Structures are given as structure tokens and as C-alpha cells.
Amino acid sequence: MKYAKAVKCMIVAISFIALCGFISTSAVAADKVYKWRAQTYAVPGSVGYKALETSLKDLKAASNGRLDIKLYGVGSLVGPFEQLDAMGMGIFECGFNAPAYYAGKDPAFAALFSLMSIWESTSDVKIWSYYFGGLELARELYGKYKVHYVGPALVGAEPIMSKVPLKQLSDFNGIKIRTAGGLTSELFKKLGASPVKMGGGELYTGLDTGVVDAAEFVSLAENHDIGLQEVTEYVLYPSFHGNTATCDFTVNQKAWNKLPDDLKALMESWVFELDARFDYQSAAESARALQKMKKKGLVHTQLSSEDMAKARQISLDVANEWKKKSPMSAKVIDSILDYLKLTGSIK
């Protein structure tokens, strides 16, 4: 009897010690601060940089200071095209970048970035991402490089800023145009242009020195923020090549795995806030930027509805050709086209 009572006391004591240890461990986890670094495609001071900077401050406040992510501009830590490998190796923890920069690793990254004029709105991309399998496909793709895909943030139609007039599709024949690469490069090639792959930080010099005649880059506001109106004479806006552009917020897989579940859930919800800020702030600033550019004397051009329809058909042809480049490309593009057929956007 005394033995049984002693055993019970021992069990209670062990359980109490274990409980205390659990509470102590939980308290430490709840108090731990994760100091991370994030590199973005954007130039410091531009609307894309400011939107992410503000959202990261919101994330720190929402996590009660437990997620403290320091932001670095394009090329500060590594080149924009090396960002995926750097995250995978743990050189820094987070990235906010255009996935088309990684198309050399798997062409599917370019399909995630944009299917040129095939998408009709940012809303369509978001619906596909969250409710038609896009998120799962993106996580499968990034996971191969030891990186976790948290979610997308999008902006609306991109511009093309140029030193030569671009008023119709035939005007692209023979020009050199900066692009992030991927499907967009193939589209420009079909129009007779010579695409040049370069990061956003190189655009001003590239246009100023004549390395390129034209450039496409995220939102019109960001083009203005980095001064491209100073080295161009024309702005095609909105352009046919990118009705929407997607940037991805990603995290090194090991770093993600170490986060407690509440912070993972917070980051996944926070991406929605980042997405809205990125989109709406870019739209507001782009409207102001267009007026400033026109006052400066830049000529605002737009393609005819016939040329826009022709560009969309060429884009569909490019997308169907791009599917053959990798198994993941086929999965991503087929998924997108199936969604757009379901909505009646394409036949």
C-alpha cells in the first residue's frame, strides 16, 4: 500500500516537473525574437520598397516585436538573380522578388510571375492562387530550393518606358528592351525585339547609355521613383505585356520550420495586408506619376484594341510553348489556363 502511494506521489511529481518544463519552454518560445534579414527587388525610396517597409513594421507590431525583419534594397546582399540560392543556403532569411528572375532554374518561375496579357486582373491571380491551387504549386516549386513560399503580392498593369515611340506592335521590331526574362522575353522576341535581362537597379544607366531603348519594370510609380522619366521620352501605359505582375514573399525553409505555429499563421495572414498595400499604394502613386510624366513632356501612348487582342493571342501561343520547358511549367500553366477557361476569360 505504502509502495503504491509512493509510486503515485512520484508520478505526480514527475508530471509536475514536466508541466513546469513545458510552461517554461512555451514561455521562452513565446518571448523569443526572430531577427531576420529580407532583400527585395526594389530600390530604396521607391513605392515598392516603401510598401514592404511599412508592412514589415506592421508585422513587428502585430507579433509584439517577436518578428523583427530588416529590409535591404536590390543588390544589397546578393544580386537579384542570385536571391533564391542565397535564401536556400541561409545567407539571409527572407526575400521579396519577381519570380521571373529565377526562370533559369525552372521556367515555371516565369509562369508564376506573369502570363503577360493572358491575365485580366490582379483579382484573378489572387483567386487562382488561394482557391484554385496556385499556392500549393508555388510551394512545391520553391520547396525544391529549400525555400518556403509564404504568398504573393501583386500590382496592376506595368508600363514600358522608352526612348522611341511605341504606338503599335510593329514598333517593337528592332528595339532593345529590358525585361526580367521568361515568357515576356519570348513575347518580345516574337515581335522582333531584342530582350535584355537586367535588374531594376541597372535600368536608369541602361537607358541613359543606350544599352536598351526601352524598359518594362513593375509599376509606373516605381519607374518614376527611380527616375526613368529623365532618360526616356515615351511611356506606353498600361502595356500589353503585363496586365499584372506578381512578387513573392519567401522564407528560408529551415528558418520557417523554426517559427512557432502562431507566428507562421501571423505571417500567412500578414501577406494579405502586404498584397493590398503593394497593389493599392502602387496604383495610387502610379496615377500621380503619370500626371507628373506628362507635365514633364513625356508622350503617353496606348495600343489599339486590335493590337491588344493580337498581343493576347501571341501570349497564349507563347504560354503553350513554354509549357514544354519543364514539368512544373506545364503544371503551373495548365492550372492557370484551366481556371481562366472556367471563368470564361479564354476559350
From TrEMBL:
Keywords: Signal. Residues 1-29 form the signal peptide. It holds the Pfam family DctP. GO terms for biological process: transmembrane transport. InterPro entries: DctP_fam, TRAP_DctP_sf. This is TRAP-type mannitol/chloroaromatic compound transport system, substrate-binding protein.
